[in-house]
Amino acid sequence: MDVATTQYEALKAFLETHLANEKADGSRAGAKEKLNRLTQVQFFELSTDVYDELTRRLMDSKDAPFLPVRDEFHPKRNQARQKLATLPANRFKDLAVDIYYELERRHPELKDMKFSKPAPQYYPPNNKFNNNYQPTSPGQTTIIPKTGTVKQEIITDFQIQKPTSRPGAPADNNIENNPKPYVNGNHSNIPIPDSMPPEYGLSRAPRSRSQSTASSVSDIGNHYMSMASVTSSSSKGTRDTANSQKLNFESLDNLMADLGDIIGHKKENSIERMRSDYEFQIATLKKRVNDLESELAESVNANGNSRIHSLENQLEELLKINEQQKSQLMLLEQEVMQLNEERQQQLEVTNDVKKEATSLLEEVKILSMKNEELSSEKERDSAKIQSLTKAVDEWKNKYENAKAEMNNMNEVSFLDVDMLKAYLERQTESIVQAIQTLLSSIRNGSHVNELSENITNIVTIVANVISTCQDFFGSSADAHYRLRGDSILKNLVDCVNKLGEMRETITNDGEGFMSNRASKQRLASASFDIAKFTKELVGLFE
To answer: Where is the GIT Spa2 homology (SHD) domain (predicted)?
Structure first.
């Protein structure tokens, strides 16, 4: 019952204007009789298919040019459902009228139901059933359609020739002239317009309402009759309920499959009938135009004009305010652009300052580390200078003592061998101390100047020893001392020369000399040779 109510409400809303003109048509008895012969299941399936096609046409979706195939339906029924899309608007409206009255006959309680009236809804412009919709302004109280709408309504609503009361039609004329919603398979509320426009672009001869209805109902009726005969023969042959229902279902599928043939069943109309139809349409069109003109004149009043005038004044004020705001907005945009540019420049300057500050901090850190290193080196150098100063003073004292002794020995002429031996022993101790100081300086990585001074001290002491021994050997020494002493002195002279050369190298390139391990070893070897030959010289006089 809920499905029948939904279908009835949708058909009633769709056929409101059409049903008002169909009341006077008395040529529907044959169609009514043929629909009466359908079983409840057959009629339910037929009304469902027509309702689905009405839903598809009202939605007017380009993605669904016909009803989609459903797996639970018989293939012939799916084919017939798709053929419903080929019916012109008037033919489909005839079929919808037949279904509407048959629903009233089978469910009389539908006549007494009151259906809610929804608010008018906007139809999309691409809907072919509502392509002349015009929204009303707040000040209007009467909807004034365009000329195309008037022509469409007259052609759709007054295609009859003999208005008579329709059997089984509702008695009241107060059918609400507003869109009604219906419920589709997706539970979406789709608005249904008051009337359906004729099929645009359809090339066919004009026909009266009774002819169109008679043709479509006759085609359906013939199929109803054939279906009934098949059902009757089936019941006589088997008397089986299940087989009868199956045959009825197949007969309904055949009925739905042949609905598409309605388009081709056209009857030829006479010239007089065509002329009478056009004369009637012209007369009704003139009457409709006169009524609309009178409604238009009544709708224009002083309140509407004053309302329009006030709205125009408000619009002018708003336009002025808008212009002022535009100018202010332009000024603000310019200020914003300037501020953005200044901000960008400040950001660039800030980034540059940050980079410079970072680089300066790094340089300060490096300089601080270098300063600490230099301070530590300075402290080490100060300590070394103090130690070297002490050593220099000591060596000066030793040098002065040695010089004084040498002068004394020269005066004595070293006539005594024991005196020369004592002199050589003292000088040997001085040479050994000087060599130890030099070796410790090499191991500790002392400064170049310190190394040069140590070498100078050794060279000076050895040179004095060589000079003293040469004087002794040349005066009164016997041949034994002279022969062995000259070879030892020659070796000492060679060692002194080597030390002198290495001292010059250290003076010119001290860091390179100290970084070279072989150079250090040569310096140490020359020092050891001097100590060795000095001991041999002392041993000569034992």
So the answer is: 31-61, 80-110
